[in-house]
Write a structure and sequence with these properties.
The complex is a heterodimer. By secondary structure, chain A is α/β, with parallel strands linked by helices. In chain A, helix 1 packs parallel to helix 2 (78-88). Chain B has 22 helices and 27 strands. Classes of the chains: A alpha/beta, B alpha/beta. The interface between A and B is large, with 58 and 53 residues.
Chain lengths: 647, 653
């Protein structure tokens, strides 16, 4: 009998209504170190959308662990866990409390104390040496797990998931990278994890005990490999109710939740290997797959093929909390796609950004921006309330048109080009950015679903529609040119990243000016290298791609450029384009260097576009060229505001 | 000169508009990250009150945002939110209890901001993306400018209702007003851009609106940027013209100054010890020659003597001393009583004040563990005095001794070396890092005032410690140099292998070509590299990270290190992992590509994590003695961690 994603699954003494998991992740929704009402609303929204299991943000089991400012502390989470459980229970969703300790991957910025670790291996980011845990600390840690788990189930959770994956002291004990101890906890590196599992089991009885385990640290010289993981799990997995397989460790933090430069479902083979090995040892513990699984068809196949028993679709459900319901209603085509951009959901960031989503800016704002959650209101208002015109078929215009139609207006969308998608469609032509197109495709389909009349290939002026009740102008930004102190003598072809993405041939010596440090400049360099050009990236920063740590692509991007042979000029700005060269100035020393150039690509900011004036409501890049989230949010606000005013 | 007349000008009162200041020491505006949900906190009140109690002549709070479009960092005070009023009153009452006037700083950061928290477009005069935040702002239209002006007036009124004695407009290093003033960011061709008169229109309009809002009985100040240090930016001549325009309004009581742009040239605003004190005095000096208003000068004044000299030389009428009073809240009081040398001198290390601000953490201080925690109760004396033996006089041991002695314990400190201070003293031997040694100087001074002796040159083993008759032992015995895995195998003819500590202790460096291995990302590698380059060695720094000395960026030392390193010919190799020693050099690997390489060098200097030296603690524990291990002996970390450990254990006894 074939197994389906929406078949129920017994997990320990509980039963998950389906196989889709909303996995534990940093949200910054907390208040001090507690789970907040924002957490409850965030998880409830996913439960309402049909998710089978919610694992809450990992809470530290002992006060020695304070890895980021709003990291929950188990001892402070009783009421939060209770609120989350109460909110999710009516939807039949299991709620498990994530529990962990980040060990030497934590931070002392907030605790003002010392990191705990199995051995003297410094924190990779801060180079800080940890305290080598003695018997006292080990006892406190084990008791911390037991107390935290007991408190979670007492607070209404259906169980717990212990973190021995990324950012975890339990993994650090299991690994030869970080555990160099000579005592019993070193000779048997799984000893601590085993003790924690036994103690927690005793504390929670028959409630669900899940384990998140790193089965590949991507450091084969000393780290956990799939082979060593399998061996270790053979003795431990029978004691847990499910196992979630992840990868990544101290030298590969970004690999655990990578962006679209990594293939979808990158952990599938690892997961099925671990599962098969367990089965061959007679261990039937359900296994959960994790790792850029954002497509329901892929998830269904994994379950059907017995590669896993559960599928973590975390980012996919941040993007569309109704992913499960839409699939069950056989409308998976209407799921708003995660585009694996990591721009707003990866929030382990000192600035404490609240988890959100480019394609779904209501995510994380379920309480303060509830009115924008248009998908939650299933009942569509009466059709044909008024005529609305939207000019510009980029994502701003498409989103505004979609929502105006959703609110019941008769909407016509005009686009001067032959196809919709605007800048995002173009950006998706850059290497590693292909999945961005999924948002354009979805918006395009939704326009059809909502009955929007789309007119392409026609350039219109807002003043042409005096009778329309609503006119939205989303006509985009304009090109900029690098600000050069000493001008440009025309000896070098000078164009912008947009032109490069649109297919302009890159050849010869190509100098890319990247004052932003985001994905675009890097991608243009990759494009140039792929075209066989000699590429140089000029950045004002001390590293290439300085803004990419937010999406997790910083190290990988540097590696790709180095492997491709790109030249890099750091902390420099272009001051002149002359005599077949780009002249740059070192920002620190003021020294001048001339870089040979046939072409110079400006990957800098674009400029606002035309602001039209009344009665058009101007949105998107026309106001100021910004990212996807700002655009989608502005479009949504404008559409709802205008839609209400005219209804 | 008698003690009380030592800093005569500094303690000469001054009339500033309606205010009479008892002295010339200003605790000028600076970020603290103490706000909670956009509201001023109890910690704010305690923090400012402690400086008022310490004798500051005038306090100006951190900025209060005047409009919802302005939310560049998470813990900003939302002056536009009426709910701030209660917090305002708490602050002003706490400060006024000491008779000290306090002003609120008003600001809109304009384009030097992010939409991350506001979820709104960023506003600015022109669509010029800020170099730090990198968001294209929306150029404000007439109605938005009206909103900005109304916001300033609204928040100014609220500040008066909250008990402030007036307000200061931050028109300097991170402000939409400076962005309008500067041709670098104002590219408008309407009545708000172009000529200086046009560019200054927003400033003058704001002065009018705010003066109307606060009335004649309150003080109004304007803080101007004297030099943006950016291409096409404002420089001193135009800043002086702006100052004259401000004075001509007749509505302003004082001028404050600053240098640099917070998001482009922050290293100039909050200069580290690498920059000489008083470096920005040319700005108030030039402005003061042109206007009659009192002028505040700022720029790394560490001690009362420097501040008094700036006044005596006529550069300014008031001196902004921020970090000096972060490090020692009693800066003014100690100076006034003639004991300026008792001031706990700021190091200008920027590690826990400036360094924490950029990382969204509360303001702290490397040597003042109370900074940022003023809301907590003060230290109380121990109920029972114990005899405490501290072994090791590095920052951890010295701080433990200070805290324990303050609480009434009988403390003895023993130190193996002839100098106290441990690695801090060594680090301060490098040119340009000397002020780091003030950490030890301050602790030693305080110990002396508490009557605690430090016995140096005494290598105390367990027997020797027992002979001192301790009730409790604090082991602050430091760390030993670490040895990386690749350095354990040393074939014949391998380069000389030294730790940074060896070099700083004066061990001979035998060979011309030196490779410094940076696995700490801070001053250790960079400063020893400079030292050796100064001595004529050819120096390369190799780091597996993407940047050599990456945390120099946090303390605003990176730019100037690069300048010095370039002039000294120091080569910086990033993404470079040393993998083994070989005769005449080392093997390396590019961590990005896995490509192997090598270097021919004579000497390898290691800047790598240390290993705890806790042998003494282990042997004392074996004898059943109560021992507390602190500092590097617990886990090798930076100086602040050592100070924290020392303070914590001192409070625990």
């Amino acid at each position: 009998m074939s197994r389906g994603l929406f078949d129920a699954l017994p997990i320990g003494s509980a039963v998950a209504a389906n196989r889709v998991v909303f996995g534990p992740h940093v949200t910054n929704l907390g208040r001090d170190r507690s789970l907040s009402d924002r957490h409850a609303a965030y998880y409830e929204r996913r439960a309402r959308g049909g998710c089978g299991i919610v694992v809450t943000e990992i809470a530290s089991v002992h006060e020695s662990d304070w890895p980021y400012e709003r990291a929950p502390l188990a001892a402070s989470c009783a009421s939060g866990w209770s609120d989350v459980s109460t909110a999710c229970a009516p939807h039949g969703t299991l709620v498990l409390a994530g529990l962990g300790h980040a060990g030497m991957q934590g931070s002392t910025a907030w605790s003002q104390d010392v990191l705990w670790a199995p051995s003297l291996v410094p924190n990779v980011q801060t180079h800080e040496q940890p305290l080598v845990m003695g018997d006292d600390e080990i006892a406190l840690l084990v008791n911390g797990f037991a107390d935290g788990a007991a408190l979670a189930v007492r607070s209404g959770c259906d169980g717990v998931e212990l973190n021995a994956g990324q950012h975890s002291l339990l993994r650090q004990f299991c690994s030869g990278l970080t555990n160099l101890r000579a005592d019993d906890f070193g000779t048997d590196r799984s000893a601590l994890l085993g003790e924690v599992l036994r103690t927690v089991r005793a504390a929670i009885g028959g409630k669900v005990l899940g384990l998140r385990f790193c089965a590949d640290e991507l450091a084969p010289w000393a780290g956990i490999t799939s082979a060593s993981a399998t061996e270790l799990l053979a003795s431990l997995a029978a004691g847990v109710d499910y196992l979630c397989v992840v990868r990544g460790s101290i030298y590969s933090e970004a690999s655990t939740q990578p962006d679209g430069h990594e293939v979808e479902g990158f952990n599938e083979q690892l997961t099925s290997e671990v599962r098969a090995a367990l089965r061959s040892n007679g261990i039937e513990t359900p296994v959960c797959a994790q790792g850029s699984i954002v497509d329901v068809a892929r998830a269904s196949r994994l379950v059907a093929d017995e590669a896993c028993d559960l599928v973590e679709m975390t980012r996919a459900q941040i993007a569309d909390p109704d992913l499960c319901d839409k699939t069950k209603k056989r409308r998976a085509d209407r799921i708003r796609p995660c585009i694996l951009c990591n721009q707003h959901c990866l929030v382990r960031d000192p600035r404490n950004p609240i988890v959100s989503c480019c394609v779904n800016p209501v995510a994380g704002h379920e309480l303060d921006d509830a009115a924008l959650d248009v998908d939650a209101s299933a009942v569509a208002p009466p059709v044909g309330r008024s005529d609305a015109v939207v000019i510009g078929g980029g994502i701003a215009g498409m989103e505004a048109a979609r929502l105006l139609a959703h609110e019941g207006h008769r909407v016509t969308l005009f686009e001067q080009r032959d196809s919709l998608g605007g800048m995002l469609r173009t950006a998706a032509r850059l290497p590693g950015r292909e999945r961005l197109a999924a948002l354009c495709d979805w918006l395009d389909r939704e326009l059809g679903e909502e009955g929007v009349t789309v007119v392409t290939g026609r350039k219109v002026d807002p003043r042409e529609f005096p009778d329309a009740h609503v006119v939205v102008a989303a006509t985009g930004g304009t090109s900029s040119a690098p600000w050069l102190r000493d001008g440009d003598d025309g000896s070098v072809e000078l164009f912008d990243a947009l032109a490069a993405a649109q297919g302009r041939t890159l050849q010869g010596d190509v100098v890319v000016l990247d004052p932003i440090g985001g994905p675009i400049g890097i991608a243009v360099v990759e494009l140039a290298l792929a075209a066989g050009a000699r590429a140089t990236l000029v950045t004002p920063d001390v590293v290439v791609g300085s803004q990419l740590s937010a999406s997790g692509d910083l190290v990988a991007a540097n590696a790709r450029l180095a492997a491709g042979g790109a030249n890099v000029v750091l902390h420099a700005v272009a001051v002149q384009v002359a005599e077949r060269a780009v002249v740059v100035e070192d920002r620190f020393t003021g020294s001048i260097t001339s870089i040979p150039a046939d072409q110079c690509v400006d990957a800098g900011h674009r400029l606002p576009g035309r602001t039209w004036g009344a009665p058009a409501r101007v949105i998107g890049d026309a106001i100021a060229p910004r990212g996807i989230l700002a655009t989608m949010l502005e479009a949504r606000r404008a559409a709802l505001e205008l839609g209400l005013v005219t209804s | 000169m008698s003690r009380s007349r030592r800093y005569e000008l500094l303690f000469t009162p001054l009339e500033v508009g309606p205010l009479r200041l008892a002295n010339r020491i200003v605790f000028s505006a600076h970020l603290t990250n103490f706000a909670v949900d956009g509201l001023p906190s109890a910690q704010h009140a305690a923090y400012y009150a402690e400086r008022a109690r310490g004798g500051a002549g005038l306090i100006i709070t951190e900025e209060h945002s005047t409009h919802a479009t302005d939310w560049p960092y998470e813990k900003l005070i939302h002056g536009f939110n009426p709910a701030v009023l209660e917090g305002y009153r708490r602050i002003t009452e706490a400060v006024h209890a000491h008779g000290t006037p306090i002003l609120a700083q008003l600001n809109h950061n304009g384009g030097q901001a992010s939409s991350m928290y506001s979820r709104l477009p960023v506003w600015a005069p022109s669509p010029v993306a800020d170099p730090l935040f990198r968001e294209v702002p929306k150029p404000v239209d007439e109605s938005e400018i009206e909103q900005i002006v109304a916001g300033y007036a609204d928040v100014a009124s609220r500040c008066m209702a909250g008990g402030f004695d007036g307000v200061e407009l931050q028109c300097s290093h991170s402000s939409i007003v400076r962005q309008f003033l500067s041709s670098a960011t104002n590219r408008r061709d309407d009545r708000w851009g172009g000529s200086l008169e046009h560019r200054a229109r927003l400033l003058v309009t704001l002065i009018d609106a705010v003066r109307d809002a606060i009335g004649g009985g309150a003080a109004l100040g304007v803080r101007l940027c004297g030099d943006e240090l950016v291409d096409n930016g404002t420089t001193i001549d135009e800043a002086v013209e702006v100052a004259a325009l401000v004075e001509a309004t007749g509505k302003v009581d004082f001028l404050n100054t600053s240098i640099g742009v917070a998001t482009a040239s922050l290293f100039a605003i909050e200069a580290s010890m690498a920059v000489r004190p008083g470096y920005a005095l040319f700005i108030p000096s030039a402005i003061r020659r042109r206007v009659n208003l009192p002028v505040i000068g700022v720029g790394r004044f560490k001690d009362p003597l420097q501040a008094d000299r700036a006044l005596r030389e006529g550069h300014c009428d008031l001196v902004g001393i921020v970090r000096g009073q972060i490090a020692d809240a009693d800066f003014a009081r100690k100076a006034r009583s003639g004991h300026g040398e008792d001031v706990r001198l700021c190091l200008s290390c920027n590690q826990e004040c400036v360094g924490r601000m950029g990382l969204n953490r509360w303001l702290g201080c490397i040597e003042n563990t109370r900074t940022g925690r003023e809301v907590r109760p003060r230290v109380v004396r121990a109920r029972r005095a114990r005899r405490v033996v501290v072994v090791g006089a590095g920052p951890a041991g010295l701080q433990a001794a200070v805290t324990a002695a303050r609480r009434g314990h009988v403390v003895v400190v023993v130190e193996r070396e002839h100098d106290v201070g441990g690695q801090v003293t060594l680090a301060a031997r490098v040119p340009g890092r000397a002020e780091f040694g003030d950490l030890v100087r301050n602790l030693v001074r305080e110990l002396a005032s508490l009557g605690v002796d430090v016995a140096t040159g005494l290598d105390a083993d367990a027997d020797a410690v027992e002979a001192l008759g301790p009730d409790v032992v604090i082991a602050a015995t430091g760390s030993l140099p670490g040895l990386p895995w690749w350095a354990s195998d040393r074939p014949d003819g391998s380069p000389q292998l030294l730790d940074v500590v060896d070099v700083l202790r004066g061990e001979a460096v035998t060979g011309g070509r030196v490779l410094v291995v940076d696995e700490l990302g801070f001053h250790q590698a960079t400063s020893v590299a400079e030292l050796l380059a100064d001595r004529g060695h050819a120096v390369e720094i190799a780091s597996p990270a993407l940047v050599v000395g990456q945390d120099l960026g946090v303390t605003l030392d990176l730019e100037q290190f690069w300048v010095r390193a370039t002039s000294k010919g120091i080569v910086q190799s990033t993404s470079t992992l040393v993998t083994s020693l070989r005769p005449g050099g080392v093997e390396v690997q590019d961590v990005r590509t896995g490509a192997n390489g090598d270097r021919d060098v004579d000497v390898v200097v290691l800047a790598v994590p240390g290993v705890p030296d806790d042998a003494l603690a282990t042997s004392l524990r074996a004898r059943g003695r109560e021992v507390h291990v602190i500092g590097d002996a617990r886990a090798p970390r930076r100086a602040h961690a050592a100070v924290l450990d020392g303070d914590r254990v001192g409070l625990l006894l």
